[in-house]
Amino acid sequence: RPKTLEDQGPHIINGPGYTRIVHCNQPHMHLAKVLRYTSNYVSTTRYNLITFLPKCLYEQFHRVANFYFLVAAILSVFPLSPFNKWSMIAPLIFVVGLSMGKEALEDWRRFMQDVAVNSRKATVHRGDGDFGRRKWKKIRVGDVVKVEKDQFFPADLLLLSSSYEDG
Fold first, then answer.
1. Cα 95 from chain centroid (whole Å)
2. Residue 59 and residue 66: Cα distance in Å, rounded?
């Protein structure tokens, strides 16, 4: 994920009494550390390859029923238990594994939707008088975006002009 202001901790721009400076159609001005804004990249996924196993296991055993059966499975390992250890461990592994598989599938679908949204294209002013197509995730603060009728647009936009008579 791209770095954001939130990742860097408190920032002078986010403090009380400060304003934001936006340089229209001058993307190089926003590269300065003081003016670095959040990107337009959309991510709705819960996990990545590194965090999937620990986060998902935490969520699974945060549920009371799964935690109860985990404790019962641990107790069944001891020789004093009246049950065979696999009679408790196998169903727990099956249920938790199935739930984790479902979580992985749902998160993969969210990831694919994110890729589709981030890859959509918008018409953006290049600065030389022409408009060009750019992916939504590449749009930055200060870009002039041309939006046509019934078209989706990629971010919060400030209306500069309208073709309607009432403006």
1. 28
2. 10
| 10 has pLDDT over 80 | no
pLDDT tens digits for 80-117?
A: 877 787 888 899 999 999 999 999 999 999 999 999 99
Strands, E assignment, the chain: 121-125, 131-135, 145-146
Dihedral sign of CA atoms 25, 30, 35, 41 in order: positive
CA distances from 146 to 23, 132, 153, 154 (A): 17, 10, 9, 11
Residue 48 has what pLDDT?
A: 92
103 and 59 in contact (C-beta within 8 Å)?
yes
What is the four-CA torsion angle of 22, 24, 26, 29, rounded to 10 degrees? -10
Question: Residues 157, 139: contact at Cβ < 8 Å?
Answer: no
pLDDT tens, residue by residue, 43-79? 999 999 999 999 999 999 999 999 998 998 888 888 8
Determine the length of the chain. Answer: 167
